[in-house]
Amino acid sequence: MIRDEDIIIVETPELSAAERLYLPQIIGGMQTTFRHLFKKNITVQYPEQKRELRVENYRGVHRLNRDEQGRVACVACFMCQTACPAHCIHIVGEESPWPDREKYPKQFDIDELRCIYCGMCEEACPVDAIELTPEYNLVSRSRQEMIFDKEKLLEVHDRTVDVKPRKNPRITGYPGTGNRSNEQPPGDDH
Amino acid sequence: MADYEPVLLRNVGVDGSRTLDVYRARGGYKAAEKVVKDMTADDVIDEVKRAGLRGRGGAGFPAGVKWGFLPKGRKRTLLCVNADESEPPTFCNRVLMEHDPHQVIEGIIIAGYATRAQIAYVYMRVEFHEQFHIMQNAIDEAYAAGLLGKNILGSGYDLEVYVHRGAGAYVCGEETGLIESIEGKRGYPRIKPPFPAVEGLFRMPTVVNNVETLANLPHIIERGADWFLGIGTPSSAGPKLFCVCGPVNRPGCYEAPMTITCEELIMGDAFGRGMTDNLPVKAVFPGGTSMGVITGDELQMKMDFDDPRNFGMLGLGTAAAVVVNNKTDIRAVLRNVARFYALESCGQCTQCREGTNWMYRIASRIEHGAGRIEDLDLIEEVAGRMGMMPGLSICGLPDGATFPIQGIVRKFRGELEEHIANQEPGKAEAVLSVLN
Amino acid sequence: MAKITIDHRVIECSDGIPVLQAALDAGWDIPHYCYHPGLTVVASCRLCLMEMQLPHPKTGEMGWVPKLLPSCQTPVRDGMVVRFDSDLVRDNQKSCMEYFLIDHPLDCPVCDQAGECHLQDYSYKFGSAASRMADQKHTNPKKDIGPKTLLYSDRCVLCTRCVRFTEEVSGTHELCSVNRGSRQEIDVFPGMPLDNPIQGNVVDVCPVGSLLDKDFLFKQRVWFLDGTPSICPGCSAGCAIRVDQNEDVVYRLKPRFNPGVNDWWMCDEGRFGYKYVHDAKRIAAPVLRRGADATTPDWEAIPEIVSYRFAQHVAKHGDDKIAVVLSPMMACEEAWLLVKFIRGVAPSATIATGFVPTSGEAQHFPVGCKPDEAKFTILPEKCPNRRGVELITERAGGNTCDFDAFVKQAVGGAYSGAWIVGGYPDEWVPKDLTKATKHLKLLVMQDMFENTLTEAAAIVLPACAWVERDGSFMNHTGKIQPFERAVRVPQGARRDGQYLFEIAGHGGLYSGERVREMMAEEMSEFSEVGDAPPKPVHQH
Amino acid sequence: MLDILKDQFWFSAILTVILAVVILGVVAYCIYFERKISAWMQDRVGPNRVGPLGLFQPLADGGKFLLKEDIIPANVDKPLFVLAPFIAFGVAMIGFAVLPWGGVVDLDGDGVVDVTAQVADPGIGLLYLLGIGSLGIYGVVLGGWANNNKYAFFAAIRSTAQMLSYEIPMGLAIFVVVITVGNLRLEEIVLAQIGEGNVWHVVLHPFAFVILLITLFAETNRTPFDLAEAEQELVGGYHTEYSALKFGMFFLGEYAHMITGSGFITVLFLGGWHLPGVPGLQPGDVSIWAMLFKMIVLGAKIVGFLFLFMWVRWTLPRFRFDQLMRLSWKGLLPISMILAAYATTLVYLGKATNIPWALGGNAAILLIVLIYNGLLRTEITGRQANLPEVTIPAEARS
Amino acid sequence: MAWQTINRNEPVFDADAPPVLSEAVREKIRSFFPRYDTKRAALLPALHVVQDTLGHVSWKAMAEIAEVLDIHPSDVFDTMSFYTHFWNHPKGEKTITACRSITCELLGGREVLDAIKKHLGIDEHETTPDGKYSLVTEECLAGCDHSPCMLINEKLHKRVRAADVPALLAAADNDKIDIPRSTLFDAPQESQRAGSGSADGKTDDQVGTNVAE
Fold it and tell me: Is D350 part of any domain?
């Protein structure tokens, strides 16, 4: 519901005679474009040149983290699959073979082509098992290759293990998000 | 009160007081004979009602009124004798059964006759080994003398008395818990209504009375209600057994009218005779732990059914006082009390099952020097959220857990805060972070 | 009927039911764990407490009781006033929810109950955001308490519904609570696991994720599942069930409240008996045989082929040499359509009721009770609609017979053409009937799995499992209960109802309700079947 | 060899071949430059992968156009579907036939003019151009129709309306030149701008030049008038369903059209191959080298216009259709009518080439336009007046 | 570890082994039936008798009690586990029940308990390796006038000091009471106490009927 006081009514500005002729504006615009003809290009020649990512929370290829013992950290809770708006995650859960864990993913597929890289899976994950790495170079020769299975996602983790994706600090620290359980949940600032 | 002549404890100290012969020689079983031969059941109930005998088990409900709740056209009545004395530090029933079992049996006969019960179960806690043998021997004696069994004293009244031993559960001292326990189930208190008087043991109308209550009956019948009312105050009439223990010079069980004060009980010559080493009193649990705590400044409290409420206590309870001297760390007391209820909660109602245990965890953390100031508020709040008074539980056990803990935290908050302030800095956080 | 006031709203309810039940029926979401309408009241979870006005013991005047009362245990009285929306009540709920979670492991992500867990729901609705419990949690072990059930005792809230279920409904007493206080757990006696024919219900009555089904364990998260109201075809009791499926895969069956039939329960046989639905060996396409070669015709051509073959057969051999066997696995509507078709092409064709599979005796629960006192019964007749097809056969009039008679006559060569409907999950064809195929020049076989009859049939039509169809079953008491389609048929197949609808000469899409309307014109029994399934009186 | 060239027919034939090759090349590189210029204007690099500086990009594009699957969707009008791109491209190409590329030429230096550096020099060259130019729309309309696609059809209808609207001011602007010169031969029009007392028509009739320029944008479907292929609302417009070579034909046609249009406006207003005061570019210079020089000059002027086309495209946004119509009918048409009338008056007065008279008239018209725009056109008239008035509460004004 | 699963499908005793309850014991249990309306009510007496006879109530004994009382073994397990008095694993010949009620604790109960632990080298709910002593604690023995106190089997020892503990435990008849015993709940004559070691030879996991602190 929009409150009345939030509505700002903008009136159409009155045009002057010259403006109504449009020509000065057109000429002005053409001057601008002409000037840019001679400006320095800002293009980066991508495969040869690579630029540092300026955004820290760039959302690129997913990775499936490993725990301290090198096992997949995922507990197959399907939260990411539930949160995914593009329905690109497919999990098959199974009883885990390890004594300290109840459930683990027998199969974990992400269709990177379907994915819209919104990062919802990352937010939804209760054990920080799925994360979006800043890796943006994602190419393949077939659609099949772009469906990343568990092994491939773990490989991404091994490759990017040093990168700690930066997350929205407001979201971290809910009780039950693994290692941060003692922090107070957000609440007052709502 | 030195001139008070003990009634209930009159046979204590007499040689062979446990035997039928001695008991009879000292005037025993006259009341029972009078009742079964000359009185109707209603006469007995009226007399007891008139005497205003209030239950000695803790709740103080008038015994005669309780009997009056029995449905009129009932076929059978069962009598349960509550000898499951588990409340720390109460031991007056033990004293009664140990020294004068026949007095209890006579009370059972009178109560049984009044309620027209054919069977009486004496539910005795399992730790009373010696008392069980004494009681059972006395019952055997009574059977042999025709005081129990078929056709008591030729009156045509039949009463079987069975001793049923408990197995270590405080909650079986609650009347419905006791009933469930006799039925061979876990001692879960039942939801009321229906009250046991309507539907109790084996779904029959049942009366549950405390040993001490029953021990009063022969004297009421024998000496009359007026005599009974002449002792103590109108609302707290009759003789009462008081226990006093802890670091006092003469711990024990004493009989007195309910006009004495707590101070007298501890300091009086006829009673506790003062504190060991004359240390000041820090706190007293005057009615068993579950009734709550008073400080050393509140010793003027009268030990009757009403006055304790003015001191933030649940009631008189079992009138067993445990004294804490000022050498004692109040945190240890808190933990001990909390542990008792955590371990004895039956686990039926959520608030009690989880709350008592939570309180114990907090209390033991505080004792180990890892408390936080907010823990005091928390433990007080948790304590406030249980019990039958706000309607949150089936039985009164959580009320009993509430009052001592709330009392300790409220009345000794300064000391607790001081302890917390003086404990090793950061220990609470360290302990909590290890825990989680 | 009593009139009571809850939160200023006057509701009418039957006398003597608990206030909680009255409030639930009237649409309040009253939190509760230990209360279940099918079990005795223990009033131990203390979550449903409300403020109430009760008559004063002495004056008889109505007045507010100063304490909270368990609404599950207080029966309604006329004129009673109850307050649910009050600070006292909310306060209790909030603290109570905190207590429930004191030792709870909070492992919702791996808990199969998450999504339909009342610990979650109530925490969200009535609880507080954070727990103040900072001390170490007590962890109870996970127990394998039976061949089909797991017990996660650390998630348990000790409502003891499961224990009461085994005591009061199944009467088998496997479950018990052990220890006391906060160390209390649910357990079984070692070596006497929870293994009775209706044990699956303990999973349903469990309001939290403590008792879990091994069959469903970790298979799906419940929020992905879509439930469809259905009727169990396992026996002729006609238990109302819910089919939970996701993407056309049935993951589990759950009972639906159906007063007088199955109440809140269902048996394990029915619960786990749906596995054949996803059997790879099912017949998924029609087969047309001419001599040795078999072809798969288009579904569009089927009505014409079938009608033509029957018409030709009637012209050649006469219409009294044709028989139709109606399987008790069929829905009433399907049977009716088939009868209509056959009577259309061959008015004096014989209509026989199909093979009725039976197994053992009726099992009544609680174990050892008298049949008329049973709270739940598993019937020996392992088909859902014997009475339905019998009714339709009877109303069809003309030549009818039962299955044994049909087999005898068929072996004797009384028929030269037959349409036999199977659809049984298990092997069913009697040996004699196989022998009779040599007499049958035209055999239309409608079945789910290959058997000797489908091998001999000229036309094989795939039968579908009940979850793929819609229609109605008539249970052993004669109650007609509709069920809905839950999943789509396997690729290549078509719903029985649809092709029978077309073969019977109707156009458009088949729907059970539409056919029932047609049936109601001649069979009044079917005029009021289309009602929605009864509203669940109790949600969990 | 030379003798054969002296024959106008063979000369024209060879010229045709050369022109076809050159113009196709230019068209192809137009696409390259279009992309390059747009990139530069947006501070990018543009195509740079194929060959040095990306110069082979047009070849790669052409290869792609040739090799891609040529889809003819079901339910299209097949003959028209196939025909439309060829019409669009072909019509744009044949416009070059009448452009006077290099004046007259004396091939062997004998002082006798041998041939005209023009494929054809019809007396009605200008009319030919106009006619052919209008035919260009045929490709668009047919394509849009044949697509059997509602967006394409919308595009076709739009094009038709647009073409119809802009041909009138265009015709009137050309009329100004024609009436001034009094001849329809393009070579003559060029010559009329050269010599004593003659100036380029752009000096004489700047207003007419501007109008012709604007209408040319519309005629060639270039931004800001490319409503026939407005991606936002019409997917791809008339060529939605086209792919591969046929799409390429449309593409090439558009650029060919641009080149034709540029040549056209150069000839009409910018003196064709002439540059004042530059030796070798005067009517008297008839050597073969002068012809080549003239051709280069004309080519340069065309390239200049092409650049202008691109420049405008990457500067201005697309018009809305109602704006497009309003501009034509309410802006260009009245002005061009006044211009035409004024030019006619000048001719009648015999002051057709009198610069002060001509410029004075133009200035007066500009004044009228400004006065009308700035002072008079304050009221909303016509159907717009019936629109409900939006009232804004006083307190909401900020 | 919540994830480690206890398997309850396998029996913890051999069903074919000879019964652990003799006919005399069964008869003793049955003798309680007339006292109560239901057979089940004889469960607590039965458990007392069995614990008296065998020293503890093993799984097999529970199953046999259930058989005698005509109830399900899980009901026996259910009820038995509620009460702290019953042991489902073998206990020592003498059970030391130390009181840790508030009174005893105020008067040195903790020191006594520590002394017992130190002397026997066992912790609460444990049994000495020689099977002689088991140590448990009780919340209150109702002997507060003689605190600190402790029970050794049936004998209540009053005003125990930590220093007395070794001597007290060493005394041979520290569990003898000087009161004529009633035989009501006692084991039938012919059976002897099993002492340590369970009758079915199996030790089971601690589903403990004794609530650990």
Answer: yes
